[in-house]
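Anyone else keep sequences and structure tokens together like this?

Example one:
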Amino acid sequence: MTGIYTVVASDADGKSGAYYETTPDTGEYGLSLVVTGGTTTSLQDRDGGDMTVGRSESGTISPGGDTDAYAFFGQPGQGVWIEMTDMSACPGLTSALVGLEPRVQLYDPNGVRVADSGWGYSRAQIEDYQLKMTGIYTVVASDADGKSGAYYETTPDTGEYGLSVTVMPAKGPYGLYPYAPQPPDGNSVSLCDWDTLSWGPVDGATGYDVYFAGGPCMPLEKVAENVADPCVPRSALENKHHVCYWRVVAHTPEGDIQGPTWWFAVECCFPRKFTTLNDWVALGKPDCWCSGYKYQCDGDADVKDSGGVAKYCVFTGDLKLIVDNWKKPPSDPTFNPCADIDHKAQVMGNYRVFTNDLEIVVRNWKKKCAELPGDCPRPE
């Protein structure tokens, strides 16, 4: 079903032969999650990507328990050959207990596992699997662990691997499905420089639906329906430093073709046309000056409301920040540029927080955010 699923991680304890463990263990662990049909990379793990044209990649299984995902667009009548090779074992050693025990699994567009290499000493293969349906297939690469003779390995291995995916007969991705997203998949983008979502057109498409989510725990929601051209204006993004996800479905006479799920990270930005851009850069590009903080230049120095019932946008927390940074030079390591409400240096001194910033706070004292313009940063 659709909704938020919960993964619970714990220490299992248990019984081993005549030994029964009664005391829970503590320690560090690694956790990895792959959602078939979802993104193949993330900010935390860049291993993965699109393999439609067939290519070789290298990656790292780390920490223990890590799994990496790769994807390709396939059609009935094509065969796929997948091979994963351990690149971390010492040369000349072939023991299953040294380095990775590679394992690759293949999932169809419906999320059903259709092939599994099992585990081997240093290489895992899925040989000539014949694709049964059209869509995005997911390849999951991992360390298998396993049993070798009387020895059972309980600790996941880490290390480097090589992965190759060969799709036969090979077909170029352009025109087959929504491809080549802009912004590019996994990139960081600035709200100041980017205003559209676009992708490569699909042959014979009569229109496109676009789905968008402003965070990892938000559902993909339709933001454009049956648009004729392979581009749409970007959805409104008021926050910065978050990750957005999107997907395109192409309508064709033969049926809908769903593209991969892409993501991009939104960067803080300050308009390049502002003469104070150099000041923003010199002060370390403070987030609070950016377009994601709509009320900072109206006196909301701490970029949060007062809480409680009143929820004042400008209140004692902002005044305290002004006082704490009063006439401090920017070179002071304790200086907080969020207290620089008007984004201007003082002409007569080497400081940025002074009476003009205080005047803005006083003018908007105890005002709620809805009573303020909310258009920061504001042109000079």
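And example two:
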Amino acid sequence: MVRTETQDQFSSTEEARLARFRRQWQPDGSHDHVVGDDRLSESEPKKERVVQYNRNFDIQKYKAVNALQFTNPELYQQRIQALDAQTLENLETALGERLNASISKRRDDIENGHLVDRNTHESLLDMFKRGQEWRAKNGSLPHDQMREAAEVIGFTKVDRVFNDENTPIGTMMFSRSEPGRPGSRYQHNFYDVFTLKIDEKGERYNEAQRFVTGLDPKEFRKKMLQLLDPTYADAYNPKLGIPLDTYMLMHPIKLLPGTTKYTSAEDLHGDFHIDSKSLPLNIYTETVRRMKPYGKYYIQSLKDDSDNIEEGDLRFKAYFNIAEDEIVNEVTEDINNNVVFQHADQEQVIRRDHIVRSGNQAMRIVQTACGESGDSGSQTAYSVAEYGQRCKTCGQPEADNHYHCPKTSCSKKYADETKLPANMRTKKCSCGFEFHCE
């Protein structure tokens, strides 16, 4: 039997909490985002824009890790390898969302009873929670704040189910994300499928996949009821004032092996992608492979000098512009001509004139599933969890871009300096430690 994760005390408690949350910003408790209702826009709060990729996060992370070269070289090697892998993965995921790729995929490991980032080993649930709190304070509309709170609740259920040893391998959790109302940062039409798998070493893990769909929200809901859970809508109570898109993020559908006709996320996608104007998976996968040298070239600028904002911006914009303006078209033409791809790792020559030309072009602004992405001065993260990553020195969220003196005997903490001219940034700590930046 298909079971929706709505039929328990956890769900009713969290729904009541969100209902109270809604009344805080709409005192009469009225609701305007249920089936058949018109969607009303809201005015934009005058706070920092919430966009898709935050280069400031990269700058501060590499600044902190780079300083370890002089104080703890062994720890530096451990941290830099994990950070390089995480940054490259972030770039590739952001590229997939900008290209409207039909699928993006990641692996989450299971450690100490929770799903964790496979590069940093930090709890994803903790990152989601901290990220949601930070976004609520830094630019999210009230309706979007509810969506982000609901995203945390929904992922809590995924985390709980996949960390239960009695959950059978092959179990899928289906999470629907409808486009938000006009003015919302979330305008894409997609869904996530989380699948419990086991690797060759016997380790259980979550394979998270995101799919774009061309079905309009009403048609998608009909398919959900017909194909996944006929009782899904029965538990929805509009009197609580919780918008329908928020409700669905809160309540993923659990699909147990043998209780559904679907055996994989890709199999399920066959019924839910109709007429999607998305980039095919084979084109996206090959584009990502060809773009790895450019991603590493951007990362190298952060390792060489994270404070060189101009060079970092140049390589960052070149990465996306080259992918979108050139590589995607090349891959599409190759596939149409039945070219057999050679996947052996080959060192691609990066031409400096190519980087300069592409990096000086403006990036187009696009709406992605996790916010706005384009050529702005405050590119931000692709996931709410990105805003919740914890500083390894003090344990506080990294979202404010603070950093610390790496000298072990010093407790000095510095506020964000990425918007300051290079000649005004801190070069030397009061303890005497030099940051080795220009």
